[in-house]
Amino acid sequence: MRKRSGSSEETSIVAVYPARGRPRRVGRVGAVARRRLAACLVLPEPHRTEVDGLRRATGGEVARIPPHITLVPPVNVREEAWDEALEVLRRAAGAQPGPLDLVVGPAATFAPVNRVVYLAVDGDATARARLRDLRAALLVGPLERDERRRFIPHVTLSHRLPEGDDAHALAVLGRYEEPVRFAHVELLTYDDEARRWGSWADARMGPVRVTGRGGIETELGVSAIVPPDVVAGLAAWEVRSVTLPDSGTVVTGRRGREVVGVAVGGVERWGARRVGRVDGVVVAPPERGAGLGRHLVTTLAAELADAGAERIEPSEDADDATRALADAVGLGAPQP
């Protein structure tokens, strides 16, 4: 979990620090802002590090993009469609019953069509059907593409192995198989200047919790990074004296496409214990005093407990409002 930097609380709106590998630059076509987006299942740790080792050994472009399964190939999305693209991501993830268990490996190749060496992706019949359904749910709206090629889920290792080396790689990795549980689906974005792909937004797969049923309903979605529309909302609310990391466990409150609040935290290991930290809870000014903050921090605490936290408390950097909410729902005070 990131700690706060030396920025001044008095002079800056809420600070949200960029996650590793999360490009901020936006490309432009003429005067129109656009992003090049791709929907993917990015391998989680420790599988990510292991597969990156295989990519290095086979000459793959490790620094350019994390190891992933492409669901929607790159497509240019104009600025006015970014919110819709985020909604497509959330709806597709929310339609899934939960994490998706797949098997990555063994190695294969697209030869003679091309010299790409990859790790095959498979699973039981249910997992394969869910993967197809997830892809179909993403290929709509601003992410829609005319896909004529047959969908072959895979994790690319290398595009350019010298002739003859691909056969050796296949022989060496022919028995490599690893079960991988994917909990999140991501939108990667391309940074034209850095020439690399990184996470722009993600959503956890599974039904979204809803509060206020029968009244003013609010969806409480879970992600691993602070969504772009939340960053924009925080700036619009002119929130001060709150510092949030932009990755960890993020609970976002929405009504339709409107962001109404966010809670961010994470789990750290303190000696033999795993401690959950509530870093910050922010509610949109018009929604304050209606109980949304409690719903956000309670949901965040449940997520941290599910992630193995034995104790949950506000972080040292938490503001007074976050500490008050944590106290109101019975979370512990920070330990020295």
Automatic annotation (TrEMBL):
The keyword Transferase applies. GO terms for molecular function: acyltransferase activity, transferring groups other than amino-acyl groups. Keywords: Transferase. It holds the Pfam family Acetyltransf_1. Gene3D superfamilies: 3.40.630.30, Cyclic phosphodiesterase (3.90.1140.10). PROSITE patterns: GNAT (PS51186). It comes from the Bacteria. InterPro entries: 2H_phosphoesterase_YjcG-like, Acyl_CoA_acyltransferase, Cyclic_Pdiesterase, GNAT_dom. Residues 210-336 form the N-acetyltransferase domain. This is GNAT family N-acetyltransferase.
